[in-house]
Amino acid sequence: SLSYFGRQKLHAGTASGSKRLLFIFQRGGNDGLNTIVPFGDNHYAPSRPSIGIDLADIDAAGTNLGNSFAGLHPMMAPMMSVFTPGDLAVIHRVGYADQSRSHFDSQDYWEKGDPRGVQGLKDGMIYRQINHMLDLTDPTVTFPAAALSGNQMVPLSGDNPIPNLSES
Questions:
Q1: What is the rounded distance in angstroms from the CA atom of residue 45 to the CA atom of residue 55?
Q2: Cβ(114)–Cβ(98) under 8 Å?
Q3: Is the CB of residue 111 less than 8 Å from the CB of residue 25?
Q4: pLDDT recorded at residue 27
Q5: 128 with 113: CB under 8 angstroms?
Q6: Is residue 165 within a helix (H) or strand (E), and if so which, with residue range?
Q7: CB within 8 Å of 10: residues ≥ 6 apart
Q8: pLDDT at 8
C-alpha cells in the first residue's frame, strides 16, 4: 500500500498549475493487466477466467478510473487519493514496435527509452528529458526530480545525481 510518506511526496509542491509526472515502474512479477484492469475490453475476462479482476471488486474498492474501460487493482486503492480525472492520467496498455519478447530487453527499453539497445547508453529516459528541459549543473535547480526507491532507478540515472527517497 502507499504509505503516508509516499502520499505526502506525491502531493508535494506549491506552485499551482505546475505539472508533475508520476512514473511507476514495478519490477518483478507485476501483472500489468491485473494492475490496471481493462474491464472494458471484451477479451479481458474470457482470457483470464481464474486470475481476472471483476468490475464489482473494482467498484467496491473505489478504484474505477471513470473512463468506462479501466480500473486499478483493488489493492491499489491508496493511489486513488492522488487520482482526479483531468489532473492525473493513467497510461495503460502501452507497447512498442519490434518487441523481442524478452523481459530484459523490454526492461531496458522502458528504463532507457531505447528499443534498439544502443550500446553504452547509460542515461535513463526520464533523466534525459529533465536534462533537456533544465540545466542540471545550475545550482539554482535544486530539486528537479526524486525517486521513491531503495536504490538508484535507471530511468533517473545520469551524470548529475537525482535523489532517491526511501522510507527505510
A1: 10
A2: no
A3: yes
A4: 66
A5: yes
A6: strand 164-165
A7: 2, 22, 82
A8: 46
Nearest of 87, 125, 106 to residue 10 by alpha carbon: 87
Distance between CA 130 and CA 45 in Å, rounded?
A: 39
SS3 64: strand
User: Can you give the pLDDT of all 168 residues of the chain as single tens digits?
Assistant: 344 444 444 444 444 456 677 777 766 667 778 888 999 999 999 999 999 999 999 999 999 988 888 999 999 898 888 777 666 677 766 777 777 777 777 777 878 887 666 666 788 989 999 999 889 889 898 888 888 887 888 889 999 888 888 776
C-alpha cell at 99: 518487441
118 CB neighbour count, 10 Å cutoff: 9
Produce one character per residue of 71-93: b if its CB has 16 or more CB atoms within 10 Å, e if not: bbbbebbebbeebeeeeeebeee
DSSP string, 6-46: HHHHHH----TT----------SS--HHHHEE-TTSTTHHH
- For residues 78 and 7, the answer to whether their CB atoms sit within 8 Å is yes
Long-range CB contacts (< 8 A, 24+ apart) of 147-153?
Answer: 148/6, 148/9, 153/25, 153/111, 153/124
| Secondary structure, 3-state, 71-84 | EECHHHHHHHHHCC
User: Cell 519490477 appears where?
Assistant: 27
